[in-house]
Design a protein that fits this description.
Elements lengths: L1 H9 L6 E2 L8 E2 L4 E2 L13 H8 L24 E9 L14 E2 L6 H9 L3 E4 L13 E11 L6 E8 L6 H13 L7 H4 L18 E7 L6 H9 L8
Parallel strand pairs: 2-9, 4-5
Antiparallel strand pairs: 1-3, 4-8, 4-9, 6-7, 7-8
Helix pairs in contact: 3-4
Length: 242
């Protein structure tokens, strides 16, 4: 959709590289992408924002665009991605104006053991138990933040903040689904972390619904570190390597 709109505005076929791919139904308010343009098209970037958004549907918006160093890669130069997951346990379900991004959960959730379980998952691990494996792709990731807090001014709503250097397919939703079981009291707080010993996806982990999840931001290093970061990210990772 965005690729088509950008190609139409610039009148040349383009290929976009995005910072993070999201599952169907997952939102993104902080997605980053790049495209390599011929030098002759560079002057057209000025004033492009309004023209581009006129071609996009109402639920897709480009907030900003500009030139980046040649070494920049939206995917491989990223230091970390930030996600948010919203869930409500209100007996009436999600508020209508937030229902598109808030999962209505039919059981009580206790945030204290949920935070305990989430903290035990932090660090660099092989998250194979929580990922849909892809041939030739590593499932080693460094989970840097995973915690739950009440949404200000929204009774019954809990929000998870999840950050990592990268995420494999369905990883965030699987982590959330596992912690939901702890919050319900069906599993102990150390159960999700215990699954890290698995070499294959854990079938007992239920993947949380997609619409509660949003990609909210991507961090990048300074311009002079972009190439080094991209090269490092492309390497196959082994637990414990810097």
């Amino acid at each position: 959709m965005l690729t088509e709109a950008l190609s139409t505005v610039l009148r040349t076929p383009l290929r976009l590289t995005v910072a993070g791919r999201t599952d169907a139904g997952v939102h993104a308010s902080g997605q980053v992408c790049h495209a390599d343009l011929p030098e002759t098209l560079a002057p057209q970037i000025d004033g492009l924002l309004r023209r581009l958004n006129r071609l996009l549907p109402p639920d897709v918006r480009v907030h900003d665009l500009g030139r980046v160093p040649d070494a920049f890669d939206a995917r491989f130069s990223a230091l970390r991605r930030h996600y948010r997951y919203r869930v409500t346990t209100a007996p009436f379900g999600a508020e209508p104006l937030r229902a598109r991004e808030t999962v209505a959960w039919p059981y009580p959730l206790d945030p204290e053991p949920m935070n305990a379980a989430s903290a035990l998952l932090l660090g660099e691990h092989d998250f194979a138990a929580f990922c849909k494996r892809r041939e030739g792709a590593t499932t080693v990731r460094a989970l840097q933040r995973f915690d739950w807090s009440p949404a200000p001014g929204e009774p019954h709503v809990l929000v998870a903040a999840v950050s990592a250097d990268a995420f494999c397919h369905s990883m965030v939703r699987s982590l959330v689904g596992a912690v939901f079981e702890v919050g319900r009291g069906r599993r102990p707080a150390d159960w999700p972390a215990g699954l890290l010993r698995r070499e294959l996806r854990a079938s007992e982990v239920t993947v949380a619904p997609p619409h509660g999840l949003s990609l909210t931001g991507v961090d990048y290093p300074a311009d002079d570190e972009l190439a080094t970061r991209a090269e490092r990210t492309r390497r196959i990772r082994v637990p414990g390597e810097g």
